[in-house]
Fold:
Amino acid sequence: MAKRITIDPITRIEGHLRIDVEVDNNAVSNAWASCTMWRGIEKILRGRDPRDAWMFTQRFCGVCTTVHAMASVRSVEDALKLEVPLNAQYIRNLILIAHALHDHIVHFYQLSALDWVDVLQIPKADPAATSKLAESLSPWTRNSRNELKAAQDRVKAVAASGQLGIFANGYWGHPAMKLSPEVNLLAFSHYVQALEYQRKALQVVGILGSKTPHIQNLTVGGVANAIDLDSQSALGMDKLEMIRSLLDEVTQFVQQVYFVDVCAVAAMYPDWFKIGGGVKNYLAVPDLPLDSKGSAYDLPGGYIHNADLAGVKGFQTGSDAVFRQAVTEDVMHSYYKGEKPLHPWEGETEPAFTGWEGEQKYSWVKAPRYNGEPAQVGPLAQVLIGYSQGHALTKKYTDMAIDKVAAIGGVRATPAALHSTLGRHAARAIRACMLAELAQKHWQLLVDNIAKGDYSVYNQPVLPSHEVHGVGTHEAPRGTLSHWVVIKDEKIKNYQAVVPSTWNASPRDHSGVHGPYEASLLHTPLAKPEEPLEVLRTVHSFDPCMACACHAFDPSGRKITTAKIL
Amino acid sequence: MNSILIGGIGNVLLGDDGLGPYVIRLLESQYEFGDEVELADLGTPALDLTHRIAGRRGVILIDCIASEEHLPGTVLLYDKAALLSAIPTQRLDPHSPAVSECILTAEMLGASPENAWLIGVVGASFEPGRPLSPTVRGALWKVVDAIGYELKRLGVKLEKRLQADELGVWWAEEVGSPAYTSS
Structure:
């Protein structure tokens, strides 16, 4: 008989992700993804000045502040048909890239690497052998025996204290852990270094945005950075050089460490190219605009239906008419009132909480649909959409990843193998390499444009009194983000944010079709169902972020994530 | 880097959860701090909190508390040992590395803050778009007192300004939206 396992980190009052799976014969036979708290934040924007909306929206989430700010100003600019000066586009692009690099590095090392790396094997590793192995994989200069020994000593110190400190809750010694002590040590050493490099990426956001976590430099119509090459307080050569040197360091880490580690993990867990696929409709929007109108982009967008890569439909702009018409949200299995799927401009957010009822309503997340079907968003969608359109930069790093995995593990992955848990990790590393290269490009574009004497950063918005609609999109670290605004009488009449994790964590819709997390978990084999490591591997591969909400400290209930068998 | 951090944690859009950032604005507008102290509205931080607190002589965090034991408005103080007694949870998403995990991460890096306190107030309402509840507002002076007390332990005096700036809590300006109408 099937038994149900619930994974629910019941630690805070904030909205968080809960996963329920039914297990039959040591494989997942059914799955539910749900979010445990209502956000409803959009409602507080009604009646406000649309030019202020971004300051509120960047408080939706403490991890992705900038992305909600950016989507918001873009939605109002779209509604007002307002162009954005080149300097402002480049500055925004640099912020978006730096934030994404920070996010991808943290995601792989701090949030998911320990699903594959067994920390308790590290004390057994030989640092000299590890260093030799590392040199065969990458030219990275920080893989010396001494550096690796220092990382090993950190783990030994934590283990010797009797408590595992930061590692107190992991599935150590799990039968699905397959790496040698040396590979575990190498990955862990990079886990420690990653903390340094993600911070350097964040420093770029801080310099351009003037503050983190909440940037201050955005405005509808452009940015508020004063450009003066000779000044130390405005954006001048001093700051630009500082940004350049931080980006150089982050680029090296991404290309020589992160990318290589993901390829190595993939080569050593080849089975995971066959697990965790799920929904094979993919959606991505174009991003990193290259002109003031937003008609040319460095990252392509589009839609792939049912894994038909050859039939990919490209989007021309971030607010492409095809995209605008295709999006609806369904609330059949969500804790909201409503009958039929609604377009976001008509979207409503009226709560109807029932408690978890797997066959009825069970999540605070709505079910976004593209032409009535679920769609997977995120780096994998972006890479597949770029690759299938022959986008040169996407092709370059995807082919490089396939070659690297083959060189390490002797197995040659096909593009079809990317519809998997490992495919999502690989795509994120591929995207990080692309973004690192594009960071250099956009830095140069900005410097060259300023050198031409163009100091313009802002176009004044004019709010009409008649009703206008706008959509602002951004291909965020977790995928397609869209903010939908309706403006009337110079005030916000309606506002809806369709966030990437809503696409991926979507519950079933009125036809009973699973969302991407749910579909990806079906048929996953579990070596030890009471320690559902394999479920975490797949859920983590999406980089879930549910808590665009509340964060109160809970001193009492800091229980271990329960893997409850019901 | 300033050797002492006073950081406000919380989501300003969710009623009493905005306590931390509110207190930071209150301190910025009414008190004088020397070079040693950094004030920061941290929003709802994740792992990036690690680098905010690593290597500091003192860290004072202000946050809203969820508690079934204590009444709303109760002010609670947790020292570093109390914060570290919490067991890290399995991370499902990037918000999971919370205060305790960030201190533990700093510890692993050999850069644990020498002193750390979390001053919290038990929240009454977390409704989107609402300002601080009267219950939590009534506890603000106790929070400022507690901050002053911990600063004194660190050898720093909390000094009131002769002339206060505008509070400037932009997120709490009412616009008559539906979210403001209930209770």
